[in-house]
Amino acid sequence: MVSKTSTSFLFIFFLFSGLSMNAQDGESLFKSTCAACHKTTSKKLVGPGLANLHEKRSKEWFKKFVTSSQSFINSGDADALKIFEEFNKIVMPDQIFSDTELNAIWDYIKSESPAQTNGDNIETVEEANLPFEPTKEDMLIGKDLFSGKQRFVNGGPSCISCHNVRKDNFIAGGGLAVDLTDVYERLKKEGVEGMITGLPFPQMKSSYQNHKVTEEETTQLIAFLKDVSEQRFYQGITSYKNRLLLWGLSGAVILMGIFPLFWYKRKRDSVNKRIYERQIKSRN
Hints:
By secondary structure, the chain is mainly alpha-helical.
């Protein structure tokens, strides 16, 4: 029979083991959720680089921003508002982390941060970006993947289901998510790649977590979005008003021409004549 002392010891052991495990999970939590938009270096991605975050912000500030950035901004925090405006007002999704998990992520970022020396402003240090020069073939395949003309290898839904881009002779996309016409200019290759592979938004995660976009497909989508961004100033605004009106009128004219064919014989004689003929026939 297990004594009460032993039971208490086991409870305390498992409690502290769980806390220790959560602390060690900071890296996996960061890579599975935060890495799509942030790096632990000073390099900017979709959001700011987080190197030496602990020297610039308090842990409580960090927790408030991660938990609900928009609520924190609306509360009047000047630093939160500045970051939001600096990064093109891209809304950071609210994250549902426990306090222990937030502590683990904070500790991981801190452990990955380089030592700040000589008073340098590490936030301004940028890593060199290699030029992204995709092939024409990559761009065309990316266009077909985006539109749904070519299916993804792992069966994910086409991007056009939720997103739109402004491009001539390209069907308008869905309005459920942000327009991606200038996304490449705003986020560059690393940012767009982070969005596709990291799935930072709930709807994206729901759609693609079991249907991962391959590395090759990611490159092809980025190639298409790069072309869209570069060519957007030469594209017209797609409007279906006149087209829908034309097709509607054409359909009405066709139907108005078909219906009389069914009623042609009925119009030759009156209804009363047919009734009269049936009655005479029945009497005979």
